[in-house]
Every structure is written in structure tokens, then in C-alpha cells.
Design a protein that fits this description.
A two-stranded antiparallel ribbon has the order 1-2. It is mainly α. The protein has one domain. It has seven helices and two strands; from the N terminus they run βαααβαααα.
């Protein structure tokens, strides 16, 4: 079994409203406002972490936990409002793990990070992934809320839901895999792991546990 430091999971709600998806993006506006400030803080924290890693080979744990929290919050909102639309449960306003929510994210805390990699992974080594996830998201900046492949497939899924009452399971598995790829790349580019993201789609809502020697 392969273990990865970034774990992204999701559960498809068995009974979804046929039409609530039309207004979820409106209902999520308070989250978008908060996240706009959290992502500014995320970038500032990443800059501080860059210098901390460069001099100490460590990502300060409080800063790491904050940035993991921002990614968790973003994934929950994306899952609810635009990136998958796989639940009707309103996402909590929380940086915590929220194990009861159907969209979850965890990143194993690294005890040591490479000083050499911190200089190149976010702007050089991750470039091939940036090209791929731009096709997925349609976005030119951070995040995954653009009209790319994810947006198109999500729209197809909810139109099918509207007419049949069922969210296509194959589309769900594919959408979670695409979002998982995006989140792994963000975690790598944000210096939270030295583990290079795999060039593959890991489909479905579940994946292996975190790296055993680093899992929290």
C-alpha cells in the first residue's frame, strides 16, 4: 500500500436536493468573504515558513496547522458550493478537521523539510503540475473555482441530478480525484511537504492513510 502525506477524502450524500445546487454559491458567499482574508494570511504564513524552513529545516507547527486549516475550510466550501456539489450540509466556519463533515483533508506534519527543495519546488518543480491543474480548474491564480474541467463535470453531474434524482457515481469519483490532485499540488507548492505529487488520478472518496511515520 502506498502512503501519501496529503489525504483528501469525501463522502457522497445519498439524498441530494435536485435544485439546491442552483443557490449554493449564493449561500456560500459568507464563506467566500472569510476565505478571501484567510488566503491572504495563508500566503503571508507561507512566506514566513519559507524562511523558517530555509534556516531551521522545520515548518513552525502553529503556522503549519493554520495553513492546513485554510485548505480544509476551502475544500469543504468547494465540495459544497462549486467544486463537486456532493453534499447539502452547510460547511462549518472552522479551521479544524471537522471529522463529521463529508469532505475532509489532512496533511502529515513533516519533522524535517529540505532546505534545497524549499528554494525551487514552488516555482520550478511544480510547474508541470501547474499546467495540468490549470486545465482542471480554469483558474490563473490559486484556488480551484474557475470554469475548467472540474466546473464542466460538476455542471453535468448536477444536471443529471436534477433530471434523475441521482448524482452519477462515476462522475463523483472522477471529480474527487481531480480535486485531490489540485489539493496535493497546493500543499506541495505551499512548502507543507517535500513529497512530490504523483501524476495520476486517484479516483473515489477514500484513499490510504497518511504516511505512517508522520501521521498526526
Amino acid at each position: 500500500m502506498e502512503y501519501l502525506s496529503t489525504k483528501v477524502t469525501a463522502e457522497l450524500e445519498p439524498r441530494l436536493s435536485r435544485w439546491l445546487w442552483l443557490v449554493k454559491w449564493i449561500l456560500a458567499i459568507p464563506h467566500y468573504i472569510v476565505l478571501s482574508f484567510l488566503w491572504i494570511a495563508f500566503l503571508l504564513v507561507s512566506v514566513i515558513a519559507f524562511f523558517a524552513i530555509l534556516f531551521t529545516e522545520r515548518y513552525p507547527r502553529p503556522l503549519f496547522d493554520f495553513n492546513v486549516g485554510v485548505l480544509r475550510w476551502s475544500w469543504r466550501v468547494s465540495y459544497y458550493a462549486h467544486g463537486t456539489l456532493g453534499t447539502d450540509r452547510y460547511p462549518p466556519f472552522s479551521l479544524g478537521s471537522e471529522p463529521g463533515y463529508p469532505a475532509r483533508l489532512d496533511i502529515a506534519y513533516p519533522e524535517r523539510l529540505s532546505r534545497g527543495l524549499v528554494l525551487v519546488k514552488w516555482w520550478l518543480l511544480a510547474v508541470p503540475h501547474y499546467i495540468v491543474i490549470t486545465l482542471f480548474t480554469g483558474a490563473r491564480g490559486e484556488g480551484w473555482s474557475g470554469i475548467g474541467l472540474i466546473g464542466v463535470l460538476t455542471l453535468i453531474a448536477v444536471v443529471a441530478l436534477a433530471f434523475t434524482g441521482t448524482y452519477p457515481r462515476d462522475l463523483f469519483d472522477l471529480l474527487v480525484g481531480l480535486n485531490r490532485w489540485v489539493l496535493r499540488v497546493i500543499a506541495y507548492a505551499a512548502l507543507m511537504t517535500d513529497e512530490y505529487p504523483p501524476f495520476r488520478l486517484d479516483l473515489g472518496g477514500e484513499e490510504p492513510p497518511l504516511t505512517p511515520d508522520a501521521a498526526r
